[in-house]
Amino acid sequence: MNHHNIFIFLFCCFTSASAEIPFISADCQQNEAADILSCDYRWWIKPLASSISIHVGQDTFSISPTPYPYVDAKTMIFFLVDVSDPKRRRVVQKNIEHIRLLLKSAKPHQRFALAGFASQLEILAPPGVSAKTVEESLAKVKANGFSTKLYEHSLSVIELLKKSPEQRKAIFLFSDGLAEDKETSLQQVIEAARAAQIQIYTLGYFKPGKVGNGYYNLEALAKGTGGEFIHSNEKFVLPATFLTKPFQRLDSGGLITYKLDLLKDNGLFGKQSIKLTWHFVNSQKMTEQSSFSLEKSVTITQPQAEEKPTPILEITSEKAVVTKENLESVDEPIIKKQFLIYLISGILIILLIWLSFLLFRRKPVNATISFADSENLSKKMIEGVSAYLRFTTCSGEVYPITVTPVSIGRNAENDIQLDNVTVSAFHAEICYENCRFFIRDTNSTNGVLLDGKQVEYTEIENGSQLEIGEVVIDFVMESP
């Protein structure tokens, strides 16, 4: 699956009358496999009302975004506390109290982390833990340092957050804004946060009457990364409006999705430009409508043409024939290959037929045949007709029928004794009535078959085939 990711910060700030128009940041992804463009956007300063439209070529559509948090969306919030001076124990204690208040606003889609920093960075709760875990880890926060590397450790936290899978990430920095870094600058932190799509919310705690560089450092960090700068009063208490809704801006905006197959339907391929426009009402002058736009380039892949199939030879009983349409495109190796395929197929078919013949041909039956003396006064002589039985599955012996009935069975008292386990003791008999021959089943176990069909009593004719158990008998009758 291919994704093209572009994170776009809109830093320009429009003005109308005396009020500023809000900033917007957007993370746009093109999913080429699903032909979808999706943009996760959020406000840097939330407007009173807004609508969104999308411009593709000459067409403009209104879009209804999915509010954040959408399905499977997650937010990472990293609490970073300055513990660099033991004299700030009272401030650090206020930091702990405020973090507890912030955690009361935690929502199911939010994950947390906690760290303290001075000259070293100490991870107290790793990224991805619950609000409860962070609250339990607050007991480890102690003001016991003597120097601070604000920018260096901010960069370290940014590197940690880059490895987290959440859609949105933010650092809540509790500090007085004073930094003793020599190799890392404020601008480096801002640029790293922007590149990693991380907002920094700065919470300033300043000594009464000593607002200086620290104040401006924290303000620059927040404004430069789309976060928010909040400072405490002289008693180190943060505004109640922030403490009750601390993550409101972080959860602003939503998800815009646009199906790119609409471009394909209009025959637009290659690189195409899509323009997203936010329309919002100025907070100071409700009647004035303003807008803010960004353009996103997408790549629309044209479906590949179907390959022409390889010409197929027409095979007759005499030779292989190439049609006129594919005569020029068929080369000699293809002809030889296809000829071999048909030749091998023909040989295999012949072998299968031969094997079937060997498997299913009738095998000789192991049966001993004995004929009794036909001179029996109780039997009826046959005159004017010559008929006989030929035992084809045994030794091929022939029994001439001169008197009837002719009894057949395994018992020695029969006229024809067949010593085979599939033959009953008194299996059947052949009769001659009204110049016609008949076969009768005499309550045998395996029955009597005439030309493959089981019968009880029926006429037999010249060429009929009888099956007495496994013994096959041909009935032959010759007219005078």
What does this structure look like?
The chain folds into three domains: 24-68 and 253-294, Immunoglobulin-like; 75-244, Rossmann fold (3-Layer(aba) Sandwich); 380-476, Tumour Suppressor Smad4. The chain has eight helices and 33 strands. The strands form eight sheets. It has a six-stranded mixed beta sheet with strand order 11-10-9-12-13-14, with helices on both faces. The longest helix has 29 residues, at 332-360.
Please tell me the overall pLDDT.
Answer: 82
Helix proportion of residues, in percent? 10-25%
* Radius of gyration using CA atoms only: 50 Å
Q: How many distinct folded domains?
A: 3
Which structural category do the helix and sheet elements fall into? alpha+beta
Number of helices: 8
Q: Low-confidence parts, pLDDT < 50 over ≥5 residues?
A: 1-22, 283-288, 313-322
The CATH class designation of the largest domain is: Alpha Beta
Q: How many strands, what sense, and barrel or not for the largest sheet?
A: 6 strands, mixed
Name the shape in a single word. Answer: elongated
CATH superfamily of the largest domain: von Willebrand factor, type A domain
